[in-house]
Amino acid sequence: MAGPLLLRSLLSASTLKSFSSHLAPLPRFSRCFSSGPASAAAAATTYPSAYLDPGRLRNVAVIAHVDHGKTTLMDRLLRQCGADIPHERAMDSISLERERGITIASKVTSVSWKENELNMVDTPGHADFGGEVERVVGMVEGAVLVVDAGEGPLAQTKFVLAKALKYGLRPLLLLNKVDRPSVSEERCNEVESLVFDLFANLGATEEQLDFPVLYASAKEGWASSTFTKDPPAGAKNMSQLLDAIVRHVPPPKANLDGPFQMLVSMMEKDFYLGRILTGRVSSGIVRVGDKIHGLRSSESGIEKIEEGKVVKLMKKKGTSMVLIDSAGAGDIISMAGLGSPSIGHTVANTEVCFYLVIKLSACVDFSSFSVN
Description:
- Pfam families: GTP_EFTU, GTP_EFTU_D2.
- By secondary structure, the protein is α/β, with parallel strands linked by helices.
- The protein folds into two domains: 54-248, P-loop containing nucleotide triphosphate hydrolases (Rossmann fold, 3-Layer(aba) Sandwich); 261-349, Elongation Factor Tu (Ef-tu), domain 3.
- It is 26% helix and 30% strand.
- The protein has ten helices and 19 strands.
- The strands form three sheets. Strands 1, 2, 10, 11, 13, 14, 15, 16, 18 and 19 form a ten-stranded mixed β-sheet that branches.
- β13 (291-298) and β14 (301-309) form a beta hairpin.
């Protein structure tokens, strides 16, 4: 019994604190949000078992001021990639969102485009839901900034853009609603200049200032790299926007060889599976059946709050939740199996704690301890 007791004594609060640098960052959030249909995961279908090559992944958030056409744009992108959209504003799954016509909780989905997998995050545009924006921009490398070409950048455009630039995201500017009679090419040039000044005032880097500009009518379902009000029939689609995302947004920097770690950024409840945790895999590979731990940051260091195993791995494809067998670093996934971790906590496999024990063993001279 001396061995386990010795290891338990070594795992003190001060020792755990010194190891905290090996774990994914654990920001604190005061509010946990649960949403989504209760039976979504129960009706999930099967998805290919191999985890995705990080070089084929693009993680991007869609950000905008309220009513600038962000959610309508998401509908058109899903349809462009073959998803079945049952109704308008398909990403707004909460009844209050459909009633008020605004996005309250962030939603993540993925679409396939030319052998690439695009993880798209629909974010709230209202400053009252800034916590939602703060969480999701940490999961992505790029952002599509949607600006009404008639209204130009407004107060909440500045708010959501500041969050994106703070995390070093590569933005694309999409001037929406250019089909309106009041919008001219001169007006679009003026709005582009205003957005450039906004970037500069918010401290954007030279790389962020070199953003591509696209013109779109999300209502009519098309986007163009050049100004037009009526593109040719064969170009009335979202292909140019999707190509720009693949070309401009860098793939995630992923370490597949490290131990599995995932920072929880969203949380849902399912009637059958219980708590469903969604986040970006920061390192390693996770498979169904793996033993995992829930970890959180405290004043004394890193604390383990629960241990269990992965019961289900899921990924949103279009408007449907599908089951997967494994997932790798850089991807955004959902999992079931733990009941205690919530937003801001880290989920990691047992290799993380095993690595901690090995590090401690290498630093301690066990010959100085007596065994009774």
